[in-house]
């Protein structure tokens, strides 16, 4: 657990979050014990979310922020290297907007870098003093005032330059690294030249490409993948958590840009999404629920009727559904229309063993996939519903509650926090089904423990959801202030806290691959403080209290044991300990 307070609350016998007792006792949050309990709940919630913001390893950027950061980087390069703004943009673009990389490469070998990006110090072609010059594209003579050239000095008329630049801009972001039209020349065409020759529309496109390149070419930034969202995310890979939540309320994984999917890794998500969209399950269904016509091999599903089957035109072959033999060889002597003696005899001889085995395997595989997919999809639906309920709560119900119970809206944010927790827990619970689907069948101990943890998570989340949704209605429909509203506040805040702790520990346990559970189904760790796999047994005999998995193993310890289990709370202590670390009872 994260603190002594969390630990105390989670192990209190009077407030067993997962016991099924809906009143929960809530001894820890009792108003009678603490006259300032209301303030405590609000302060505790504020501290938690403030700490989460401090731990946040990403920054959400709007267009103004992106433009400001881009300008700061350009200015920094320009001042440090004593080069123009245009040259700074060229360098930063080439090195993916990495200021550090530009500095390192430039000071290591300036000449090489200039040649690499096309920043020439001297022109390749020196202009003559003639009044007219020949354009290198249209080969017509033009006055000197109509001749333009990049740093290389190759002369082209303004019209050809305009066409060349416009075509490049309309071709896409590649125009940002535009070079001289001469194939053998690598001189870069900078933004200043583009702005002087391009139309207003093309200039706007070029500026937009330049702004977007700061996000798309920068390894530390990405666009939010939500439809219609124009925010970018600056990510700092610090604590290994790739989950990102944008201002648009969409959460996604920085690593794979799919929807946020902790505790499942990106490879599992990729396999799961591919499986949901692939044809493999269609083929499994066909194999499990149909048989091929003996003549044309077209798959046929039998959903009712007798065993006499007739294939569709043009085949029209008549056969027996059971033995797949021609119907002309069947009749009363073979069992009539609803049985087949030939099939029964052949089945006893093992003639259909392989086909039936394949069909049974396909049926089992399909049923298993359907089990996990339906629950994955169901939690997704519940999450979408919770998002809609949160929106209604923020826009309608909070103001109504404030008026009815004469409470400032700032003191009702515990309701919003509860709904945010429900939404997050629905997402986690949804992905635990993908986790369970790919959990190896042969690891029985881990699977049993996983299903136990998942069941406890579902139970706790349903209690929180019911409290935030159903029990709130009586206060929304009340005609005036209610004395029970403070009790409701205490209960909902407590449920939110306990559910948050449990799910955080659940995520850590699954991300660690339930590593504390060995092949015999017992915990290999020295602590059972969290749900991160710290149970002696993974069955229903264990008790989960606010994120603590309790063991049901023996309380005895032999001379060779490295640990002893407390007979009061079943906590696994080190052998050298004489007092239980959890309940402080003497061994």
From TrEMBL:
Pathway: Protein modification; protein ubiquitination. Keywords: Metal-binding, Repeat, Transferase, Ubl conjugation pathway, Zinc, Zinc-finger. Residues 517-560 are annotated as: Disordered. GO terms for biological process: protein ubiquitination. Pfam families: IBR (PF01485), IBR_1 (PF22191), UBA_ARI1 (PF21235). Its EC number is 2.3.2.31. Residues 523-541 have a biased composition (Low complexity). GO terms for molecular function: ubiquitin protein ligase activity; zinc ion binding. It is an enzyme of class 2 (transferase). Gene3D superfamilies: 1.20.120.1750, Zinc/RING finger domain, C3HC4 (zinc finger) (3.30.40.10), Zn-finger domain of Sec23/24 (2.30.30.380). Residues 131-344, 135-182 form the RING-type domain. CDD domains: BRcat_RBR_ANKIB1, Rcat_RBR_ARI7-like, RING-HC_ARI6-like. Its cofactor is Zn(2+). InterPro entries: ARIH1-like_UBL (IPR048962), E3_UB_ligase_RBR (IPR031127), IBR_dom (IPR002867), TRIAD_supradom (IPR044066), Znf_RanBP2 (IPR001876), Znf_RanBP2_sf (IPR036443), Znf_RING (IPR001841), Znf_RING/FYVE/PHD (IPR013083). It catalyses: [E2 ubiquitin-conjugating enzyme]-S-ubiquitinyl-L-cysteine + [acceptor protein]-L-lysine = [E2 ubiquitin-conjugating enzyme]-L-cysteine + [acceptor protein]-N(6)-ubiquitinyl-L-lysine. It comes from the Eukaryota. Belongs to the RBR family. Ariadne subfamily. Might act as an E3 ubiquitin-protein ligase, or as part of E3 complex, which accepts ubiquitin from specific E2 ubiquitin-conjugating enzymes and then transfers it to substrates. This is RBR-type E3 ubiquitin transferase. It comes from Cucurbita moschata. The gene is LOC111461090.
């Amino acid at each position: 657990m994260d603190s002594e307070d969390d630990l105390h609350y989670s192990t209190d016998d009077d407030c067993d979050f997962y016991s099924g007792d809906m009143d929960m006792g809530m001894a820890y949050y009792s108003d009678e014990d603490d006259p300032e309990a209301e303030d405590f709940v609000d302060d505790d919630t504020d501290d938690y979310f403030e700490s989460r913001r401090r731990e946040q390893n990403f920054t959400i950027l709007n267009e103004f922020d992106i433009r400001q950061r881009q300008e700061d980087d350009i200015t920094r390069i320009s001042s440090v290297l004593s080069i123009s703004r245009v040259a700074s943009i060229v360098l930063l673009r080439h090195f993916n907007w990495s200021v550090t990389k530009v500095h390192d490469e430039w000071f290591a070998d300036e000449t090489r870098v200039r040649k690499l990006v096309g920043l020439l110090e001297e022109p390749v072609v020196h202009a003559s003093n003639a009044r007219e010059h020949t354009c290198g594209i249209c080969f017509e003579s033009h006055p000197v005032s109509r001749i333009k050239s990049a740093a290389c000095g190759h002369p082209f008329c303004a019209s050809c330059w305009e066409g060349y630049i416009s075509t490049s801009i309309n071709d896409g972001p590649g125009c940002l690294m535009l070079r001289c039209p001469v194939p053998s020349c690598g001189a870069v065409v900078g933004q200043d030249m583009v702005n002087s020759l391009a139309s207003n529309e093309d200039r706007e496109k070029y500026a937009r490409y330049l702004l977007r390149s700061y996000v798309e070419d920068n390894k530390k930034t990405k666009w939010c993948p939500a439809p219609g969202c124009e925010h970018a995310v600056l990510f700092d890979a610090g604590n290994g958590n790739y989950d990102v939540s944008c201002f648009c309320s969409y959460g996604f994984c920085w690593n794979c840009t799919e929807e946020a999917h902790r505790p499942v890794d990106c490879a599992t998500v990729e396999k799961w999404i591919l499986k949901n969209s692939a044809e493999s399950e269609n083929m499994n269904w066909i194999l499990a629920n149909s048989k091929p016509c003996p003549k044309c091999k077209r798959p046929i599903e039998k959903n009712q009727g007798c065993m006499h089957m007739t294939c569709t035109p043009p085949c029209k072959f008549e056969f027996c559904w059971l033995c797949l033999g021609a119907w002309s060889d069947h009749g009363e002597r073979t069992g009539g229309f609803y049985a087949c003696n030939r099939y029964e005899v052949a089945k006893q001889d093992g003639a259909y063993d392989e086909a039936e085995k394949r069909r049974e395997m396909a049926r089992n595989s399909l049923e298993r996939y359907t089990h996990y997919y339906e629950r994955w999809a169901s939690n997704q639906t519940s999450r979408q519903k919770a998002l809609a309920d949160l929106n209604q709560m923020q826009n309608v119900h909070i103001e109504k509650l404030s008026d009815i119970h004469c409470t400032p809206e700032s003191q009702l944010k515990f309701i919003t926090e509860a709904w945010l927790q429900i939404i997050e827990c629905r997402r986690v619970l949804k992905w635990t089904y993908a986790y369970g689907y790919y959990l190896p069948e042969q690891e029985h101990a881990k699977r049993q423990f996983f299903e136990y943890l998942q069941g406890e998570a579902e139970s706790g989340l349903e209690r929180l959801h019911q409290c935030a949704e159903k029990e709130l209605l009586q206060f929304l429909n009340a005609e005036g202030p209610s004395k029970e509203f403070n009790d409701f506040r205490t209960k909902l805040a407590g449920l939110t806290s306990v559910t948050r702790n449990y799910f955080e520990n659940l995520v850590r346990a699954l991300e660690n691959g339930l590593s504390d559970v060995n092949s015999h189904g017992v915990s290999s760790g020295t602590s059972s403080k969290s749900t991160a796999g710290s149970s002696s047994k993974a069955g229903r005999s264990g008790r989960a209290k606010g994120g603590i998995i309790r063991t049901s193993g023996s309380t005895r310890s032999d001379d060779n044991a490295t640990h002893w289990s407390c007979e009061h709370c079943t906590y696994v202590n080190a052998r050298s300990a004489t007092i239980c670390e959890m309940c402080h009872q003497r061994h």
